[in-house]
Design goal:
Length: about 500
């Protein structure tokens, strides 16, 4: 049976110079940078707040922030959170969740052979896994920042299609509580996290091909969620972890109790848990738990039926995991499930830009003439191929990876940039996402100001403008002593394996 929707006139809800589609970390950086550089900017978000994965997805963290590599909006946001008392204090983080890399280096090399910067700072790979914050306060802060910058924010606004004339975008079509509307703009930035705008535009995208190599070639990456448990006796739980280092002294923990529970029929799919207190900003008994997983395999993660199955399946796992914790782990006796996420960590489409970043670039610590940001997050492919390694060096993110090769006024940031599937496992993290967002937003505004398309923008002008905003645009501008800790750590070949990797090292480097 064929169904046709009758053509109808759409009212224009709003118009702007720059339309930013998606209010996660990349969208935050893009919208603020665009507006602050003089462009009339509108930010569209389908939920009721900004923050994306950091708020709606229960992941209130900026991972591996290093002031020697990262500047601009991300440092400003952390400063505002710190001033509000909404950041977790480093000194209150338990030892097993901070400085683990520093301890490894001391044990392997001794203090005399460790770079001075490692001993004197707690940032990057040798500090805590990341800087955590109060996600509810963060929502308010982001509203405030957008208002201060003059960004027009629209919540409950779902982008469903694009408006296109010849080879350029003229805006997007959205569904709102008022109905179907049009929003017009001169430059569109895809920060949806799933590449919806790029995909709908007809631009060349990656994602449909699934996993490129290995035993699961052609299948789709799976998904996972994290949930918060409240009411935990914090000190009792910390003491338990410290006294059981074999099972609880690292990020993945609880292997024995999970195994026993699964043998008794518990509906748990993972073989270990992440139970982190680093997210307990106010030492109030909150524990972050990651464990529910779901494999899409032959169906794409944008299949609404399969995505619904995933949500239901992982919610069932949440309660099975919670029951195991409550019955087996000291401190959880009076605990309760405090919060589950609005959506899981998903893979989708990525633009094909004028350059595709690979793990090989990351391993080399490559610099580019058109660099606009620096990344130091290794590719997190622990679940995907079974390994996570401190195998890269801080590397540049070129502007060419942010611009669609097909549509001259389409930019991308965050998870949607032009990168291989394994490389995006690091580049999609919140720290590099907000940085690529700032670069894309600045580029969009400058293209309006200079009356050229983003694809023809003078990259030198973009880089100089970013520098004036406090951004460190290339590893070539970073002092050697700031990079030395990363080089030393990489030289040790530290790789953590969940299972025997099913993709050869040389194949990982290609994507």
């Amino acid at each position: 049976m064929e169904i046709y929707e009758s053509p109808k006139k759409l009212d224009v809800l709003a118009s702007a110079d720059v339309i930013v589609c998606g209010g996660g970390p990349a969208g935050i950086g893009a919208a603020l940078a665009s507006a602050r550089n003089g462009a009339k900017t509108i930010l569209l978000e389908k939920f009721n707040s900004l923050g994306g994965l950091q708020t709606q997805g229960n992941n209130p963290i900026f991972t591996f922030v290093d002031p020697a590599l990262h500047g601009g909006i991300i440092i400003e946001i952390l400063k505002r959170l710190r001033e509000a008392g909404a950041l977790r204090k480093f000194e209150e983080i338990p030892p097993y969740e901070r400085g683990r890399m520093k301890s490894i280096l001391i044990s392997l090399l001794g203090k005399d052979r460790i770079p001075k910067r490692v001993l004197e700072t707690d940032v990057g790979w040798w500090g805590a896994w990341g800087v955590t914050f109060d996600l509810e306060y963060y929502k308010l802060l982001l509203d405030t920042l957008m208002d201060e910058a003059g960004v027009k924010t629209l919540y409950h606004t779902l982008v469903v299609d694009v408006l296109k004339e010849e080879n350029e975008l003229r805006g997007v079509i959205v569904e709102t509580p008022e109905g179907r509307k049009a929003i017009l703009g001169k430059v569109v930035i895809d920060t949806t996290g799933t590449g919806l705008v790029a995909w709908k535009s007809g631009a060349a995208c990656m994602g449909d091909e699934g996993i490129p190599v290995g035993k699961r070639k052609g299948q789709y990456p799976g998904t996972l969620i994290a949930f918060f448990v409240g009411g935990v006796d914090y000190q009792k739980f910390v003491n338990f972890r410290l006294s059981n280092p074999e099972q609880w002294g690292q990020m993945y923990c609880g292997m024995d109790i999970v195994k026993k529970a699964k043998e008794k029929g518990a509906y748990i799919k993972h073989d270990a848990l992440v139970c982190a207190t680093i997210f307990d900003v106010y030492n109030a008994g909150r524990v972050y738990v990651m464990g529910p997983v779901y494999a899409f395999d032959d169906k794409p993660p944008w299949s609404v039926e399969e995505l619904t199955n995933a949500e239901k399946d992982m919610r069932k796992q949440v309660w099975a995991i919670f029951k195991v914790l409550k019955e087996n782990v000291p401190g959880f006796e009076k605990a309760y499930v405090e919060r589950t996420p609005a959506y899981p960590v998903l893979s989708g489409h990525r633009i094909v830009g004028k350059y595709v970043i690979t793990v090989g670039d990351m391993r080399e610590g490559r610099a580019f003439e058109d660099s606009v940001a620096i990344n130091n997050m290794p590719p997190d492919i622990f679940e995907l191929v079974g390994r996570f390694g401190y195998e890269i060096l801080p590397h540049d993110i070129p502007y060419r990876a942010l611009v669609s090769k097909d549509i001259p006024n389409l930019l991308a940031a965050g998870t949607v940039i032009s990168a291989g599937l394994f490389a995006i496992g690091g580049l999609r993290y919140c720290t590099p996402s907000i940085c690529t967002g700032q670069a894309a937003g600045t580029a969009a505004a400058l293209s309006i100001k200079t009356n050229v398309s983003p694809t023809d923008l003078d990259v030198t002008l973009l880089q100089d403008t970013l520098r004036k905003q406090g951004v460190i645009v290339s590893v070539k501008e970073v002092p050697p002593e700031a990079l030395e800790p990363y080089r030393v750590i990489k030289s040790l070949g530290l790789v953590f394996k969940r299972r025997e990797p099913d993709v050869p090292e040389e194949e990982i480097a290609k994507y």
